[in-house]
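=== Structural record ===
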Amino acid sequence: MSAGEQDSDAQNAARGPTVHALREQDVDAAVAFDGSFIAFQRLLLQLRDGALWCDLDSFETERLEEPYRKNYGDDADAEGLRDYLQRARGNTATDAAAFVVRLDGRVAGRMMMSRTWNGFAYIDDIAIDRNARRRGAGTALMHAARDWARTHGYPGIMLETQDTNVIACRMYLRHGFVLGGCDRYHYANEPDIAHETALFWYRML
């Protein structure tokens, strides 16, 4: 890292969470942090006028009998991030993007995006260091996703999560996402998560 980049990172650290395109020197840190969380409740889905519905006013959950730790980072590795790094070309590409968010001068989260089959910008991976949560890192990445998608003319953003990731579901609702659908059998062949329901969220731009 050059002296100029070091100075810039130090200045950004003083201003709170900052997002920039993934760089080669960020890769190891972007997969090294602990992005796990304790799943202890699930979102209760509702029907309204015959359609699946979820909003902050009607947000209901139930506690799980046996909480467990979940880590999406199990699917992230340096080789995979370098593939996004090459495809995204500093986030100038129209079909891929790779971001990191920094707090206190260090990488505290990551987000990978691509163009999906239906023409939406898709958040393939988003993770925040468990020791850096509730400090605006997730919001900063959501804003980066919105800006990148708008810049490249996407009609909206799509992502997938699960009914047991309740905190993430709340965040997506706060940032204008709506629940587009669910699939109870999406993980049926994955014994550890077969009980989870896949939720598909959309934000129109």
The longest helix spans residues 137-151. The radius of gyration is 17 Å. The longest strand covers residues 61-70.
